[in-house]
Amino acid sequence: MKRGETMNTHVSRGLFVASAVLASLIAGPMELSPRAFAHEGAHAQPPWQTASAWPDRIVVTFAGDPARSLAVSWRTDASVAATEAQIARATPDARFDLAARTVRADTERLDLASVPLASEMFAIEDNAALAPVGYHSVLFDGLEPDTLYAYRVRGAEGRWSEWFQVRTAPLAGPVRFVYLGDAQNGILSHWARVVRAAYAKAPDARFILHAGDLVDRASRDYEWSQWFKAVGFIHGMVPAVPVAGNHEYFRLGSDQDARRALSILWRPQFRLPVVDGLPAELAETVYDVRYTQDLHVFVLSTQGGELDAQARWLDAALKASDARWKVVTFHHPVFSSGRGRDDEARRKILLPVLRANDVDLVLQGHDHTYARGALDAAGGQTPERVSAQNAADGSVGPMFVNSVSGAKQYVWRENGWDDYADDGVTLTRRAENTQFFQVIGVDGDRLDYTAYTADGQTYDRFILSKDAAGRRMMAAGVASTMSERRFAGTMDYPGADDLND
Ligand SMILES: [Fe+2]
């Protein structure tokens, strides 16, 4: 094996390249599944992985005010060097398209087989046989709030996608969204049913939040081909809010301290906000979406480095927001639910910010288990609020959820969340050996959360409400008739190592 060539990342060094992109590199430890070290068997390249002059991998995201703009990204082969998209109001008229306006796309050519980073060229062996591709995106702006639009995107001349319908955010009023934990393994074979069940359960969901580890090997195009095949047309119609997990980063070298970089596909395929004042390496992985007057979502990249800078930005952004419901999402859980996976360093940085700002809901992944519980009121409130009220009034602090949507399942911590008792958190519901999706609704002073198993059964539910003073009360507890799911008492689980080929 040559220097720098590793089985686990399939990355090796090649030519020296002068143009450094040092900012996208990060150093530090990284979790890898055992499978990542194993030999990957050859697989036949499926026809849907191969790019053509036709557009595919079409995904809507937010890159501006979601009431007034929508971003769309798509892929073609590298022969498409310039292209465009069109948008029109979706009306009952059969030829609504005649009123469409055309927007020029931003296009970049992406070499899948090697990447220039930090003055070196790294070969990506997972993609060794793949030709370069074209990635294209537009930001449709000047749109009206809560309005249904139809858009289509083009590949080569005359090669258009179908028209997709997507609705802009309302300024206020009730909205629902879907939250999914790690997909990661068996993305097409075992995760497709979950994202499709979520869409079937909540077809009116305004966006789907993916809490990291969308794939197992960050830059491996084959896995992203599975992800886009699994979502099908869903993300052409329902915007994605993607969170970068540890598996969205890949190691550039062979040792544990090797630098890491964000998936070469992340920024080309998801057009996302760039926050001023944050390090360039965090661009399009740390951002916020002020969805409505009532709902504000904040996204961190807990594998992306500069966590102190992220925490400072989060603290300021939370303080500046007057939204009634504040949801924070990142990949590594504050309160671990997987055995041997506790991460005290990250908790010490993030928990004080979440607590000081009395965040409503924290949505996480990574531990391949299900966990849900809240800080007690005193644990979740600012000192001023605690002194102004009796902590025994029934109010609750921030709610934390860890979830998993994919087929890789881990064992729960031996002591549950007892080890975190000093932090004032209480575990309410947990599971092992179960794929989940969550539907979360916000309607004025009420937040309604339901966790569904992949077959559509309700596993966990709570309703929060806020009174005039801003106190958060638990309006309903568990409303499931399903008993707690643990490895004991459920179907045998042989692992998911055979699902990545
Ligand atoms: Fe993870």
Globular, elongated, flat, extended or rod-shaped: what is the shape? globular
CATH class categorisation of the largest domain: Alpha Beta
Strand content: 25-35%
- What is the number of independent domains? 2
Return the structural class: alpha+beta
Number of strands: 28
Short description:
This protein is of the alpha+beta class. The chain is built from eight helices and 28 strands.
What does this structure look like?
The structure is a single chain. With 501 residues, this protein is of the alpha+beta class. The chain has two domains: 53-166, Immunoglobulin-like, CATH 2.60.40; 170-499, 4-Layer Sandwich (Purple Acid Phosphatase, chain A, domain 2), CATH 3.60.21.10. Helix content is 14%, strand content 31%. The chain has eight helices and 28 strands. The strands form six sheets. A seven-stranded mixed β-sheet has the order 15-14-13-25-26-27-28, covered by helices on one side. It has a seven-stranded mixed β-sheet with strand order 18-19-20-21-23-22-24. A four-stranded antiparallel β-sheet has the order 3-4-10-7. A hairpin with a 2-residue loop joins strand 8 (114-117) and strand 9. Helix 1 (187-201) packs parallel to helix 2 and helix 5 (307-320) runs parallel beside helix 6 (344-356). The chain is globular, with a radius of gyration of 22 Å. Residues 1-41 and 380-391 have low confidence and may be disordered. Bound molecules: fe (ii) ion. Fe (ii) ion binds at residues 182, 213, 245-247, 331, 366. Fe (ii) ion is lined by residues 182, 213, 245-247, 331, 366.
